[in-house]
Amino acid sequence: MVCTRPVFLSSCFEDPRHVRLGFRDRICAATGGESDAAKLGRTVWMAEDFPELDRVSPLSPFEKNEVCLDGVRQAECVVIVVTERHGSPVPIEGVTEIPSSFFESEIFVAALLRKPTFLFLLNGYTPNDKQTALLKFLAPAFPYFRLRPASEDQIVRKVLQLVERYERPAWRRGPLRPPNIGALVDRLFKCRHRSYDPEVEAPSLRFLNGATDLSIPRPDPEDVIKILDKASGQKTHQARLSLIWFALRALMGAPYNDPSCQAYLPLWDRALASWTNNGAWYGLHGHFPMSCLAALGSRAALPPAADLGDADGTQYPHGGLASEYYSIAKLSDIKRPIFDLALSHAQLSIERAPDASGGYAMRGSIFLQTGCTDAALADYERVTRLREPEGGTSYGEALSEWGYALVGAGRGNLGIDYMEKGLEILRKGDLNGFVVRAMRKLAVGYLRTGRVHQAIAQLSAAHKHAEEIGARDQIRALEALAVKGAKLLRL
């Protein structure tokens, strides 16, 4: 994706609402002014440049919020200016009120994606209680967090320095990006992972370090349910995560470790599980406080409640932890101990639910990655046989995974046949990450069996679908694979 506005300027305005702070006028003037041409070509993302964000725009508040968040996602760095305002709220249809705002959600996405971020406290202002609490528990999610008091002159100077930087050729810009994802995963694993016994302990990492926010009142449970229901109906993973974040922010007013908040435990469990499921496709892997692993750690630490349960019939999310450690290991250079941890959780999932297929599927994937091909094939075949009677997309997924393993074992024609059949079944359901992953693996199968042109066509279609649903994890894998395919075409 080409980044046309590499510097994102947070949506901070003065009261009365929609009155710009002085430094925004100065940045606007210094980067071309108010002309349409300037708005289209501006290096800095400013809310004023987008007609979609006008008060008369037909977009809903949530859709406007997503426009802002897309700006954060596409930017290479973020400038956040804190004043005493919490920002305009983001109303959601059917929900009385959520303790979040446009401004807060922009900070959340910057932290989530670990963007290089410059945080300034504008001189003369004091953060309110909500801002203070937010910055406190998001701080560990930023690679280099420091809130600096600054004048308008200093903020304008910094933004224009960034603009100047991006007007230079890429090779002259110097480092600003955070470490690449593999290096970051390894660094965080080495400094944050603590050994534990999977049979009796939970991983030590907690979502936002177990953050609670006493400045937020206890939420109406029905409002949280409505937000989570709305999240499940969104097309893209980023839109789902935005809404799940709103639900989690509301739940921070009802801490799960507070005995008086036991009624909220099922909502905590559902929100954290939804965060994990969508975050996995979005690529939130690693030992950081907004990762899938952190959400799973919090789920495992929830106090016992009768109506909580994981896919294996227990509260403890062994299947999810196996899957997450598997994903982390694939990104890491310290693969073996992480794969071993993933295998421990997969085995525990199987022991607790021997008739379920999920544990065997995960164990087969781990075996395949660690070179135990025969064991992987046996697990994949078992999963396929277990799912065959009911058919449906889970059966299609099983065929795809078994076929992929068969190709790796040298049985290319049979493997391709299974993957093509599996993808055909998966396509009968909704477009989702499983479809994209099956397309990617089929492309690998085509490459390994010399069908390069078919592989490239499959990769192109898979990439298009991955962007449609916001599956960033698959996009990264597809783009790496496309480079290999292009090299083969040049040979």
Considering the chains and any ligands shown, give keywords for the structure:
mainly alpha; 20 helices; two-stranded antiparallel ribbon; 491 residues; Rossmann fold
| Major sheet details | 5 strands, parallel
And the CATH topology of the domain at 7-178?
A: Rossmann fold
Percentage of residues in strands: 5-15%
Calculate Rg over CA atoms. Answer: 24 Å
Mean pLDDT: 88
CATH-defined architecture of the domain at 7-178: 3-Layer(aba) Sandwich
Instruction: State the helicity in percent bands.
Output: 55-70%
The low-pLDDT segments are none
Question: What structural class should be given to the helix and strand makeup?
Answer: mainly alpha
Strand order of the largest sheet: 4-1-5-6-7
Total helices: the number is 20
CATH top level label of the domain at 7-178: Alpha Beta
Note the gap between the termini.
27 Å
Oligomer: single chain
Q: What order do the helices and strands follow? A: EEEHHEHEHEHEHHHHHHHHHHHHHHH
Gross morphology: globular
